[in-house]
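User: My notes are a mess, but here's the protein and S-adenosylmethionine's SMILES. Can you give me a structure?
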Amino acid sequence: MVGRRIEITTSRTAEWTCLSRAASSLESNSHYQSDDHIALLLVPTLLKILLHIPLVRRFFCRVIAPKGIYEYTIARTKYIDAVFKEVLFEGFDQILIFGAGFDTRALRFRKETGCTKIFELDASITQKAKLDRYAERGLSIPANVAFIPIDFDKELLSEKLEDSGFNRGSRSLFVLEGLLMYLQPESVDETFKVIERYAGEGSEVVFDYVRASVLRQTGSYYGEREILKSVAKAGEQWYSGFEEDELEGFLKKHALSVMEHKDAENLEQMYFSGASGEIKGRINATHCLVRTVKAEMEGAVLRPAPDPRS
Ligand SMILES: C[S@@+](CC[C@H](N)C(=O)[O-])C[C@H]1O[C@@H](n2cnc3c(N)ncnc32)[C@H](O)[C@@H]1O
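Assistant: No problem, the inputs look usable. Here's the predicted complex:
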């Protein structure tokens, strides 16, 4: 943890995710195309120009990037976009985006947001870089959005929420996208403990995680060696992962029931399968995506998962 990069400069993995979303917004192939047109405004001007060239895009996202990570980022963005829109439609009181990086949903879904309050939490340097970029590009921030700087490994999430106007006990969505792997295991546990204490009944948590065996470098998954190398190079190490079979027990301990649990193969079926079922893009298999709900364990009512293509 000594001298972590996020304490010194903007998160490189957040920048890379933003670049991937910007590139994806320009794709003509429907499997690769996603809607984050604001991400494109946040990348440096030269890069923005270069990304319009399909060959350059291919080079950045499919040659330099670890195998299947571009495809994973696209699938994850589409999946979480669908959950985000669904809870806005249902009128959830609050949405909290933990480790927000250059997540642009607060701006992209401003029309759908209604009375929902949005909180973005992130390492202070990355959060400031994002706010500076919004200001430089003339992107106005909706009045319902609050920004909370935090280091999840060093500061108390409960205190930050108490000080921020967060409404304890109301129905909230917690988005933890590309975050948990970067936290110490104790911080992951503490984060879920706080969610358990502060979330109202029917609240949801959507997150992704890295398989624990990836941290042991067993080399068993598609794209594993490449992603580990790239994360180390970015200076943002992975510390936490879950074994697939221990996850449900962990979540149950925190009063959460699994609504959906998707691995790379499931996500390929959802987002990259062609008309006759052939897979058009292979997804890095080191991560899984999970959607959970806080409900009484007995008789929990699980709503159907969103249609990913809507
Ligand atoms: C891979 S990026 C994901 C960003 C964003 N969720 C997205 O999907 O575009 C990881 C994010 O986690 C944040 N992060 C990592 N460790 C953190 C910590 N200890 N405290 C606060 N934020 C942290 C970084 O600042 C960065 O924004």
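The two ends are 41 Å apart (CA to CA).
User: Great, I'll file this with my notes.
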